[in-house]
Amino acid sequence: MKILQQLRKQERGKDVEELLKHIPYAQFLGLQVERHNHLIMTILPFKETLVGNTNLPALHGGAVGAMMEMTALIQLIYDSASEILPQTIDVSFDYLRSARDQTTFGQAFVTRRGRRVANVRTELWQEDRHRPIAISHGHFLLNSLDAP
């Protein structure tokens, strides 16, 4: 990914806000990022275009899944010095409750990181962080030169 290489060369590799500006799907979703120490929190403000079930209304499962995967990737990018975007090997999503028509928050935790593969757990919530709306577990392929 060229933009990630450019940001690293400009010594702005930790500027995840700038990185998001270059990811079209993140722009479509309206995904935002805040940093809290070494953890990244993603924020998805509610938009009518993201509604999948108009009867509730509830966010589309694809938007929720995309937010979980992007949250994990952004945390891995922030944690590493790699100039190459981690590749998704597999991700499993657990949808725990409907994502209502309000702002959604997410945070990812790298549970294990090897030389080639990282395991990441992601949690999304809305009003109460202790009542997640969805969680995911994913495996991501890292640049082999970016060992811990």
Write structural notes for this entry.
The protein has 148 residues and is an alpha+beta fold. The chain has one domain: Hotdog Thioesterase (Thiol Ester Dehydrase, Chain A, Roll). 26% of the residues lie in helices and 35% in strands. The chain has helices spanning 2-9, 16-20, 24-29, 61-79, and strands spanning 32-36, 39-44, 51-53, 58-59, 87-95, 104-113, 117-125, 134-141. The protein has a six-stranded antiparallel β-sheet with strand order 1-2-6-7-8-5. The protein has a two-stranded antiparallel ribbon with strand order 3-4. A hairpin with a 2-residue loop joins strand 1 and strand 2. It is globular, with a radius of gyration of 15 Å.
Class from helix and strand fractions: alpha+beta
Total number of β-strand segments? 8
Indicate the CATH architecture: Roll
SS summary, helix count: 4
Q: Could you say which overall geometry the principal axes of the C-alpha atoms support?
A: globular
Mean pLDDT: 87
Order of helices and strands: HHHEEEEHEEEE
Instruction: Give me the side-by-side strand order of the main sheet.
Output: 1-2-6-7-8-5
The CATH class: Alpha Beta
> What's the main sheet like?
6 strands, antiparallel
Question: Any idea what the CATH superfamily is called?
Answer: Hotdog Thioesterase
Give the topology, please.
Elements lengths: L1 H8 L6 H5 L3 H6 L2 E5 L2 E6 L6 E3 L4 E2 L1 H19 L7 E9 L8 E10 L3 E9 L8 E8 L7
Antiparallel strand pairs: 1-2, 2-6, 3-4, 5-8, 6-7, 7-8
